[in-house]
Amino acid sequence: MNAPHTHTGPFEGDFPIVVEGLTTAFGEHVIHRDLDLKVRKGEILGVVGGSGTGKSVLMRAIIGLQRAEAGQIDVLGHSILASLSDASDDEMRSRWGVLFQGGALFSTLTVGENVEVPLREFYPEISDQLRHEIACYKVRLSGLPEEAANKYPSELSGGMRKRAALARALALDPELLFLDEPTAGLDPIGAAGFDRLIRELTDTLGLTVFLITHDLDTLYEICDRVAVIADRKVIAIGTIDELVATDHPWIQEYFNGPRGRNAQASQARKPAGGKPAMDKHGGEGA
Ligand SMILES: Nc1ncnc2c1ncn2[C@@H]1O[C@H](COP(=O)(O)OP(=O)(O)OP(=O)(O)O)[C@@H](O)[C@H]1O
Ligand SMILES: [Mg+2]
Fold it and tell me: Domains in the chain, start-ordered, CATH in brackets?
């Protein structure tokens, strides 16, 4: 049996993201209806659901990019829906980092310059040299060699581009990290390396992570809990063991279908605890 991570213990009851009664729609097309979700401080919450069930829209709603028809969204103690248009919104945006689905870097800027974009926006008073040094540090933190800072996105592999986008998401030392399908399109080894990086950064930087993924290995490997979106709401949230114990057909199919069983079996083959060995330096390339 897989051994789920237990990183959430001391912070239980402390929720940096709270969504209550959320309804979103595009015209007549209702995406979420009366959706509730609480993300615990310090956890990596995996968010799964069929394609088109509204995972990305939910993420956009939480970071204030998607209008809600009804409901409440509190992030780090601030009401997102109320502050959508006022100035406090700016301060909030500096407290989270986002890696959008298919998230693009600016192709005409080097990796380092990409990371400098948010630094320039939020801290215009920083000197050019310091800004450059901070950017290089974030590039290394994301597991890229420092030389990558001077390369253009087109000169990097897909896995390196993901890491570069992560470096940009980490530019402002965020408390929350939103990742939408970060390992999509990576080979399994690159994906596993990226997963380990996320887990290590979460633990060392004290991040809370909202992680949308289709990748079952990612769910088993690094997520503390998983939220399942179906029928326009979060139908279940918990550890994978807890989810598997429910009898919702989609959840059963997902975790007990052939791919789910493979991911579970490969997790069970790992040493006790299931936690991958960490390379302290953010290690292997993708
Ligand atoms: N800007 C938009 N205008 C109109 N409809 C939209 C818009 N963005 C998303 N939708 C619709 O909202 C629904 C949910 O989309 P969303 O992108 O959140 O799905 P998802 O769960 O992230 O899917 P996937 O796993 O494929 O990324 C889809 O039916 C989509 O067509
Ligand atoms: Mg999506």
Answer: 9-38+54-82+91-245 (3.40.50.300)
